[in-house]
């Protein structure tokens, strides 16, 4: 009689049936053993409709198997029972599995892995169900969100940093440069081509070839385009001012000299407020046109020029205090060199701007206003270049909008984020 084996569905437990008995009750935990010289036989059910059995002989001479498939150690005190004489061991006929059947070696920590030489057939669905049921493996759906709506719910979700937006700080700096510079170029070309009489008109009625920035941005429709670009430009400028203040404070915290630290903190506040006043003056000179209110426009422009040059000078002085040994990285060295060059260019252009403005205002010389306008363009370009050295100061930083970011906020600063 061929041996049979049965498996209880869902439990993954194999019951071995000894040859010569048909479905006997499960043996007691003590054990049912084989003869010392008889080969071990492990019976495994197959997938598919034909649930026949297959016996695989082991080369190990003796082995006892319990009902749950585990192999106890050899006990010489126990005597193994041999198979009945009326049922001699006969070799199994070769079995050819169906094409859709596959053999799976038992590689997990199943109880039947202790049967040497045993080849078992295992269902893929059983493998997957056991993997899902492994202790300690908790899988949560990625699209399941907590009640607070802040992100996927799970362990530690209340303290997890959830990023909603991330923008490179270098990209923000490029945007703040390209937007006003490109808008200024469009306003110049369009006004010079389509409205030459309006932009060249002055109180002296003299010949000019280069219009001023106030002239090309004071006519319609260029004034609307310029105001929109400055409105988009101002927001990132304020953010950059806050970031610079915290960056300078982090650098001052690394100084060892208390006197130098105190001096650096005073300069940091001066630089910070000069930057804010400069940005506010830029707003005023943009939205108060020279054609609408020339006296107020002129005064706001003077404030802008004064605070702009003062901010550049104070920044260079502050960097000298914070870096007593000079720049430490190539980016810092390039940034300092460009700042010094743009500041020198701004000083020279401002001197020429004042000189030619006085010639135009009091002497009404030809082309004096054109030279004044040229110096004004150079001053504006140098100012943009000085502020764009931010790309060298923060080459890898990013601007984040995130949830649970309080832990990264400095305790001693307001409107400032931790910069390491």
From TrEMBL:
Start and end residues of each CWH43-like N-terminal domain: 170-396
Biased composition (Basic and acidic residues): 1-14, 124-134
TM spans (from-to): 172-194, 224-244, 270-288, 300-319, 340-358
Matching Pfam families: Frag1
Domain of life: Eukaryota
Positions of region (Disordered): 1-103, 117-154
Biological processes, Gene Ontology terms: GPI anchor biosynthetic process
Keyword Transmembrane helix appears in the UniProt entry: yes
Key words of the record: Membrane, Transmembrane, Transmembrane helix
Coiled-coil features, chain-numbered ranges: none
GO cellular component, one term: endoplasmic reticulum membrane
The protein's name: CWH43-like N-terminal domain-containing protein
């Amino acid at each position: 009689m061929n041996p049979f084996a049965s498996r209880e569905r869902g439990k993954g437990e194999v019951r071995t049936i000894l040859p010569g008995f048909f479905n006997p009750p499960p043996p007691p935990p003590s054990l049912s053993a084989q003869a010392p010289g008889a080969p071990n036989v492990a019976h495994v059910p197959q997938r598919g409709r034909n649930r026949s059995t297959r016996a695989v002989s082991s080369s190990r001479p003796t082995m006892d198997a319990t009902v749950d498939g585990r192999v106890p150690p050899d006990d010489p005190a126990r005597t193994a029972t041999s198979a009945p004489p009326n049922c001699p061991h006969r070799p199994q006929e070769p079995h050819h599995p169906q094409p859709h059947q596959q053999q799976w070696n038992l590689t997990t920590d199943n109880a039947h892995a202790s049967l040497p030489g045993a080849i078992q057939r295992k269902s893929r669905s059983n493998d997957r169900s056991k993997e899902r049921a492994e202790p300690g493996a908790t899988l949560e759906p990625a699209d399941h969100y907590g009640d607070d709506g802040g992100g996927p719910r799970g362990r530690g979700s209340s303290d997890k940093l959830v990023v909603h937006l991330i923008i490179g700080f270098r990209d923000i700096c490029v945007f703040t440069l390209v937007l006003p510079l490109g808008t200024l170029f469009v306003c110049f070309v369009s006004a010079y081509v389509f409205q030459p009489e309006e932009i060249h008109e002055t109180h002296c009625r003299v010949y000019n070839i280069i219009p001023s920035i106030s002239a090309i941005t004071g006519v319609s429709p260029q004034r609307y385009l310029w105001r929109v670009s400055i409105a988009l430009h101002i927001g990132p400028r304020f953010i950059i001012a806050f970031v610079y203040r915290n960056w300078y404070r982090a650098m001052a915290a690394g100084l060892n000299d208390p006197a130098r630290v105190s001096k650096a903190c005073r300069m940091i506040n001066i630089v910070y407020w000069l930057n804010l006043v400069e940005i506010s003056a830029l707003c005023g000179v943009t939205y108060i046109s020279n054609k609408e209110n020339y006296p107020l426009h002129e005064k706001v422009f003077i404030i802008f020029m004064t605070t702009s040059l003062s901010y550049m000078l104070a920044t260079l002085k502050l960097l000298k205090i914070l870096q007593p040994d000079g720049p430490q990285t190539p980016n810092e060295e390039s940034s300092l060199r460009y700042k010094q060059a743009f500041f020198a260019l701004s000083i020279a252009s401002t001197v020429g701007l004042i000189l030619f403005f006085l010639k135009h205002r009091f002497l009404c010389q030809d082309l004096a206003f054109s030279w004044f306008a040229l110096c004004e363009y150079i001053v504006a370009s140098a100012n943009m270049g000085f502020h764009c050295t931010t790309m060298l100061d923060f080459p890898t930083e990013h601007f984040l909008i995130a949830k649970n970011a309080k832990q990264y906020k400095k305790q001693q600063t307001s409107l400032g984020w931790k910069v390491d």
